[in-house]
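sanity check this chain:
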Amino acid sequence: MDEEHEEAPAGLGRRERDILALERRGFPGPGAKERAIRERLGLAPVRYYQLLNALLDDPRALAHDPVTVNRLRRIRDARRAER
């Protein structure tokens, strides 16, 4: 099995764990997060956010990092309510 899809005890692959780890970090200014997404994960920001959005609905992600997932779900829900 390749490293990107290596399974963790919680059932999340390496990429999914890396996405959640990136979301736990703070970024100093505009563009810094997008640069980190490209450099650390090798993903285009659009693809990153697609994967992140799907991850927020994954019960394995909630079990792995409930604080981060719940925070991001609240932000997502607030943005949807504004529309």
